[in-house]
Design a protein that fits this description.
The protein is α/β, with parallel strands linked by helices. It has a single domain, classed as Alpha-Beta Barrel (TIM Barrel). It has eleven helices and ten strands. The strands form two sheets. Strands 1, 2, 3, 6, 7, 8, 9 and 10 form an eight-stranded mixed β-sheet that branches. α5 (156-168) packs across α6 (182-191). The protein binds 2-acetamido-2-deoxy-beta-D-glucopyranose (3 copies). One 2-acetamido-2-deoxy-beta-D-glucopyranose binds at residues 75, 77, 79, 100, 155, 157. The site of one 2-acetamido-2-deoxy-beta-D-glucopyranose (NAG) has 8 residues, from loops.
Length: 303
């Protein structure tokens, strides 16, 4: 009897504390360093409107007023950091070779027409610009635009070089980097803890586990940015009983200054759901469509 009361009161205490901390996270967590806030994020520069990861795509998105560019990095044989998605050049250039096997000067141009990965049966026809850019070119051209950098290979030199460029261009406050692999994210954080990191996939799952067991409010977290892939969390929203929990989860993250981005959304229905869920921002291949949607719905741009 006595033991039962003890267990019951302990459990009740735990549940109440957890609930309280979930409501008021700042009791235990210091607010994370304020950084940029992005609502409108152009995936690979807007892969549905221009050839992905080209200067033309980035320029189009920035001219449109995007809050953030998302891009991917690789290292060439001569150790240049280039902006491109795939390890192998077959899909984008029609050449069966890895980026790491060629010098920057040897890299072939993109094909005229590329499939849009997150949009079924959709191809994007490009214009003149078919060049794989250097990360440095992007930093030179857009010194004030926040950039989300996906580190595509687990290569220490790549991580080091990206960090050096970020520091050189004074962009530590305008950058978030990472990968779905936690190994890479750990290396990034170790290389330069001043640059905010993304949650890797294992860490997202861990985060969800902590949330559902009520442990989340007690655990310190180094990450600042959470990117939730489509469609898993969105489809959960169909079920209203889950909605409140998801919303509370996102609200809690938001409260401790995590930024929650949902990717990659390419139609208005999904934009709507994401913003209703409380997402900080939406990543899209169609920046013009997202901008028109936000304008029409009075969703303000980031401050
Ligand atoms: C990292 O990339 C460079 C250039 O492509 C290469 O020489 C080096 O072997 C790579 N390192 C690892 C550990 O893969
Ligand atoms: C980044 O922002 C922090 C906090 O606002 C500031 O202390 C720091 O100097 C900034 N760093 C750079 C490189 O601008
Ligand atoms: C993470 O890195 C792996 C290689 O280690 C790569 O295959 C994968 O595409 C990367 N994922 C993202 C989201 O950048």
């Amino acid at each position: 009897m006595c033991a039962a009361v003890y267990v019951l009161s302990t459990v009740t205490g735990y549940v109440l504390t957890s609930a309280l901390l979930l409501k008021c996270p700042n009791l235990l967590h210091r607010r994370k360093r304020e950084t940029f806030l992005s609502r409108h994020i152009s995936h690979r520069g807007g892969a549905g409107e221009n050839l992905e990861n080209t200067m033309t795509a980035f320029k189009h998105a920035v001219d449109l007023g995007t809050d953030m560019l998302e891009l991917d990095c690789h290292l060439t044989k001569d150790e240049q950091v280039v902006v491109s998605h795939d390890t192998n050049l077959q899909r984008v250039c029609g050449v069966e070779a890895d980026i790491s096997s060629m010098t920057y000067a040897e890299l072939p141009p993109y094909l005229c027409k590329l499939g849009v990965t997150f949009q079924k049966e959709c191809f994007c026809e490009g214009g003149e610009d078919k060049r794989i850019p250097l990360l440095r070119d992007v930093f030179d051209a857009f010194p004030n635009t926040p950039i989300n950098i996906d580190i595509k290979v687990n290569n220490n030199t790549l991580i080091k070089k990206v960090s050096e460029l970020v520091v050189k261009y004074d962009r530590e406050n305008l950058t978030v980097w990472g990968n779905s692999s936690n190994q890479i994210v750990k290396k990034c954080y170790k290389e330069n803890p001043q640059i905010p990191v993304l949650f890797s996939l294992p860490r997202v799952l861990q985060l969800l586990g902590l949330f559902y067991t009520g442990l989340l409010p007690f655990v310190p977290l180094k990450e600042q940015f959470l990117e939730i892939p489509m469609p898993s969390i969105i489809t959960k929203l169909q079920d209203p009983s889950r909605l409140t929990r998801s919303q509370r989860f996102v609200a809690w993250l938001y409260c401790v200054s995590f930024q929650v981005y949902i990717w990659v959304l390419n139609d208005e229905e999904d934009f709507q759901r994401a913003f209703e869920l409380g997402a900080t921002g939406v990543m899209t291949d169609f920046p013009t469509m997202l901008k028109e949607f936000m304008d029409r719905n009075g969703i303000s741009k980031a401050q």
